[in-house]
Amino acid sequence: MTGLLATRVRRELLVERLDVAACTIPTDAPESDGTIEWDSTTIVIVEARGGGETGVGYTYAHVSAAALVDEVLAPLVAGLDATAVPRAWETMVAAVRNIGRPGIASTAISAVDSALWDLKARLLGVPLVTLLGAVRESVELYGSGGFTSYSDEQLERQLGGWADDGFRRMKMKIGREPGLDAGRVAAARSAIGTAALMVDANGALDRKQALALAERFAELDVVWFEEPVSSDDLAGLRLLRDRAPGGMEIAAGEYGYDLPYFRRMLEAGAVDVLQADATRCAGITGFLGAGALCEAYGIPLSAHTSPALHLHPCCAIGPLRDLEYFHDHARIERMLFDGVAEPVAGALTPDLGRPGNGLELKRADAALYAA
Ligand SMILES: [Mg+2]
Fold first, then answer.
1. pLDDT digits (tens, 9 = 90+) for 176-197
2. Which of 34, 114, 225, 302 is the most buried (most CB within 10 A)?
């Protein structure tokens, strides 16, 4: 009987199937940073079904990630034990060897992995943070936007608005026209008072440009310089880290699709703060691994964008510094999901009254933006 019972329970906890959808949502204004411009954002949403529950995960990626989920990953994951998420993760990672693990394949795995963690939490009837194991009750946010396409008035209104809402840190884009950046940063500084100001060049600058701007920014109390040079230039990041004025941290890592990428960045001593993105680095499983690497290297971790998806895992990672409240993603998550936590005094707190990640897809709204 015990064996039969065990078999019956296990059958109820299988992943029955994955469904995937992609939505492309126009931005609310033209947006650009130091190296690209965009007017829409695509989100690829995966729903993992099993045991009468549905877990939801997503990635911000090209629509081709949806095809990869549908054609390659979904058939592999269907029928696997819904409680054995790391086994599903290993199965997916092994299967994309010849497709190319970094890039699109890793974003597709990310969406599935996050949906599977959510499904497991819902099957167990607990919030995702409870399944992962909480180390904190809430996570500090920083407001993030300040696009190079914004006028000074738009920039001041956005960053000043976050300051009024109790955010203590905010980040703006720089590097499109480096000659204008000191003026733009000064405008932002005047709009946010004593709050901490961060800048992100998205790899637009060369080493000497970045060093010169770091000195100008220090006069405006900039505390964080993200991707001052290309993230592929680890020696350049290290140079900036060693030579930037005291009190200015160097950060990078958003293009990390696997743990060896983060290890190389940390080994090179390239960053004061490592960034990682669970919608790119193979999901919550990969993101937890990035947290473990940060712990080993004694470097804080900062979550890159996608606040609703990162909230629960961020509360379960010891070396976590903060979570990026990215304008585009905060807007899209509110449009497409019920249950999105709202910032209070610049922090997000998981709703422990909701199972899983707490998110419910608003199907009718999502259908309006089907890609
Ligand atoms: Mg960035």
1. 999 999 999 999 999 999 999 9
2. 114
Task: Give the distance (Å) from ligand 1 centre to CA of residue 2.
Answer: 53
pLDDT at 52 over 50: yes
pLDDT score of 11:
59
Residues with CB under 5 A from ligand 1 (ion): 200
Residue 349 tokens read as 């707190």
Percent of the chain with pLDDT strictly greater than 70:
97
In what helix (H) or strand (E) does residue 102 lie, and over which residues does it extend?
none
Asked if the model's pLDDT at residue 1 lies above 80, the reply is no
Complete domains list, the chain, with CATH: 2-125 (3.30.390.10), 130-360 (3.20.20.120)
Closest Cα partner for 165 from 199, 188, 196, 192? Answer: 192
List, in order, residues 6 or more apart from 201 with CB less than 8 Å away. Answer: 34, 173, 174, 175, 210, 213, 225, 226, 227, 228, 229
pLDDT band at 140 (very low <50, low <70, confident <90, very high): very high
Q: Pairing state of beta strands 273-276 and 301-303?
A: parallel
| Separation of CA 352 and ligand 1 centre (Å) | 30
Rounded CA-CA distance 133/242 in Å is: 36
CA 250–ligand 1 middle distance (angstroms): 11
pLDDT band at 125 (very low <50, low <70, confident <90, very high): very high
> What is the reported pLDDT for 172?
98
Contacts of 303 (CB under 8 A, 6+ apart): 139, 275, 276, 277, 278, 287, 310, 313, 314, 320, 322, 323, 324
Centre of ligand 1 from the C-alpha of residue 62, in Å:
18
Distance 251 CA to ligand 1 centre (A): 9
